[in-house]
Design brief:
The structure holds 2 protein chains of 2 kinds. Chain A is mainly α. Chain A has helices spanning 8-13, 22-27, 32-48, 55-80, 88-106, 110-135, 139-162, 176-184, 196-214, 216-226, 228-233, 238-264, 275-285, 297-316, 322-347, and strands at residues 186-189, 192-195. In chain B, strand 7 (123-124) and strand 8 (131-132) form a beta hairpin. Classes of the chains: A mainly alpha, B alpha/beta. The structure holds adenosine-5'-triphosphate (ATP) and magnesium ion.
């Protein structure tokens, strides 16, 4: 044990902290499992599906990844902060519905609807977080409640207002073209067509990584997820941090929701159910611990990329879609096993 | 941030000595359960006050009031002569009161340096580029731990990989570094072996020598007697005694802590058990 007073030479020998050896540091990264998995999945589909290696396929894969990834990144932060959110899938739909119906009913510029939707979505996120810190109930229960409430509202209000299961078209309204540019356009880089959601996704990854690793808030997120009471005892504002995480999820749900609306013009009110699990799966494959306190935004993004590759790879390989779930499940188990092993190493000799 | 390493001026003139923290006649209820009743305690700079008592005596409750996690229901709580009521641990920290808990001292999966600076992070840059000064924090952590004799080559390792004694030392070093005037330790040696306990007690003494007022909570009268200047005994939430070190011997302290006559009763009961080597050991204590 090195807590004994060390000999003087040793003290002089290390006046500055040393970083661990490269392999040791790599093993300590939460993304490791996901990156290994991503390479394996990529190689696998490159071999079995000829079409997989074309640029156009790559662009399709990226798009599929981004639709999950935009949500997986803040969901990962939330999980690092030790909480769940089961309402994310339907919240995306709610956000799109609010935007569309407000614009249509108030016959205003669609941007007004987009703005109202932002406020409403953030309010729902705040509600989740506030209820959590006030009641100390498990977030699983609270967000299961919001999940059901939102699902009911999505279907009920849509039926009530437009008398069908989907919203009315808003494509001829003022502001629609510009909103579509922001949320649902694409640009061409070289030979590759890149959907704008991919840019949103990358921006969110960068922002989340910056927050996690280079800001005080990131330190707090790891701490409230890893040991809430210890964090509170050294003065970390636990409540504010958790509410902030739910607001982050809501912000991403708003972006996703607006993409949904402006990409398809009409919104199906039953959409989104089940997606919350995909976001969580991507975050877990990416190295987030279900128990909180550990994980990374990049990992979750790689998890989403694995989702995209598998989802489209199966189509290119011309297999039945049934196999998609099989792959996803296998990846989830393998990645979790690897993460479990890493955690055991990190905590051993505790 | 860490400039206020306490001066030793307060120790020199006994007349002007004001207690850093003074609790008098404190009571605390958890619903209908009376956890504390009429407890008094003073903490002075450069002194170690030990709080002793059996399980459930109210030791943790007492220090949680000082640490800002709980509020007292009766009596007075003064910091440097000024009566207060702390609303949060953050407030206690801002007033110079740092607490190291046995079980919730650190976040195991976080790197050592992130733990060290948790809640008191250092920044650099401005505006949107304002960010954590990682290098500064890593070097400071390394340096401060080295000063306590812990040579961690890799401050990026999760703190959960350190031994229990080392983790306690990191938490103590953190409190000293951030200029705490009062350091509260809740059973820092409870889970430790003899050797590691010794290391922790050494740093407790080092903190005292640096001029901090220390409150040490322990089950172990031997540990308390090694470093303590004053001893406060709690029994079922009430004061069972308050002694200066020169006013009480270790044997007496041990006897009082175990509840005097109860121990005699126990040794009497154990004396009738057939194992001879055991009865010899207990009768002596
Ligand atoms: N949050 C709480 N709610 C209700 N009762 C509590 C709470 N915390 C402590 N108590 C009760 O208050 C009394 C004193 O508890 P406390 O934790 O202060 O004892 P302690 O001296 O620290 O014991 P130990 O040596 O076991 O740590 C006990 O009877 C305990 O059951
Ligand atoms: Mg206790």
């Amino acid at each position: 044990m090195s807590a004994e007073a060390p000999p003087a030479e040793e003290t002089i020998a290390s006046p500055r902290p040393v970083r661990g050896s490269l392999p040791r540091r790599l093993v300590g990264r939460p993304e490791l499992g996901a990156v290994v998995g991503a390479v394996a999945v990529f190689v696998f589909f490159s071999v079995v599906a000829d079409a997989f290696l074309q640029w156009s396929s790559f662009s399709t894969v990226l798009y599929a990844s981004s639709t999950i990834g935009i949500m997986a990144v803040p969901v990962a932060l939330l999980m690092i902060g030790g909480e769940f959110d089961l309402s994310t899938g339907v919240l995306v739909t709610s956000s799109a519905l609010i935007s569309s119906m407000f614009s249509y009913q108030m016959t205003a510029n669609v941007w007004v609807g987009v703005g109202v939707s932002l406020l409403a979505t953030l309010a729902i996120g705040f509600f989740n977080g506030y209820l959590l810190v006030r009641t100390n109930l498990p977030s699983f229960i609270i967000t299961l409640g919001t999940f059901l409430i939102l699902q009911g509202c999505n279907l009920g209000f849509t039926k009530l207002i437009s008398d069908t299961v989907s919203t009315k078209s808003i494509s001829d309204m003022e502001g629609f073209p510009s909103a579509r540019k922001v949320f649902a356009s694409h640009l061409t880089i070289g030979d590759v067509e890149v959907q704008i959601t991919v840019l949103w996704w990358f921006a969110l990854i960068a922002l989340a990584t910056w927050i996690l690793l280079r800001t005080r808030a990131g330190n707090w997120i790891f701490a409230v997820g890893g040991a809430k009471e210890a964090a509170r005892a050294v003065g970390v504002p636990v409540e504010r941090t958790k509410i902030g995480l739910y607001l982050g999820v809501a912000l991403a749900a708003w972006i996703s929701g607006q993409h949904l609306l402006f990409n398809y013009d009409v919104v199906q009110s039953g959409e989104g159910v089940g997606n919350e699990l995909l976001y969580i799966i991507a975050a877990v494959i990416g190295g987030c611990l279900l128990t909180g306190g550990y994980g990374s935004a990049v990992g979750a993004a790689v998890g989403a990329f694995i989702f995209g590759m598998t989802n489209k790879g199966i189509v290119y390989a011309q297999w039945g879609a049934d196999w998609f779930k099989f792959f996803l499940g296998a990846m989830l188990l393998l990645a979790t096993l690897l993460n479990w092993w890493v955690r055991k190493r990190a905590e051993e000799s505790k | 941030m860490s400039t206020s390493r306490t001066s030793k001026a307060s120790q020199t003139s006994p007349a002007s000595r004001k207690a850093l923290v003074a609790l008098s006649d404190i009571s605390k209820y958890y619903g209908n359960v009376k956890a504390l009743d009429g407890v008094s305690l003073e903490v002075h700079a450069g002194e170690i006050t030990c709080v002793l008592g059996d399980n459930g005596a109210g030791k943790s409750t007492l220090i949680k009031i000082v640490a800002g996690l709980h509020q007292h229901d009766g009596g007075t709580f003064a910091i440097e002569g000024e009566e207060t009521r702390l609303g949060s641990p953050r407030e206690a920290l801002d007033r110079g009161i740092a607490t190291v808990y046995q079980d919730l001292a650190v976040v195991p999966l976080m790197p050592v340096w992130r733990n060290f600076f948790l809640g008191s992070e250092i920044h650099k840059g401005r505006g949107p580029l304002r960010r954590l000064d990682v290098e500064e924090m890593r070097t400071t952590t390394h340096r401060e731990l080295l000063r306590m004799g812990i040579d961690l080559r890799d401050v990026d390792q999760p703190i959960g990989t350190l031994s229990g004694g080392q983790r306690q030392c990191v938490a103590i070093a953190r409190a000293v570094h951030f200029g705490a005037k009062v350091l509260i330790l809740d059973e820092p040696t409870a889970a430790l072996g003899v050797k590691q306990s010794g290391v922790v007690l050494k740093y407790v003494a080092a903190a005292r020598d640096a001029g901090l007022g220390v409150v040490l909570i322990t089950h172990n009268p031997h540990h308390a007697y090694l470093v303590g200047d004053r001893f406060v005994l709690l029994k079922r939430g009430a004061m069972a005694g308050s002694h200066a070190k020169d006013g009480i011997a270790l044997e007496e302290l041990t006897r009082q802590m175990a509840g005097g006559s109860e121990l005699e009763q126990l040794s009497h009961e154990l004396a009738r058990t057939p194992a001879p080597d055991l009865s010899g050991g207990v009768a002596k204590g």
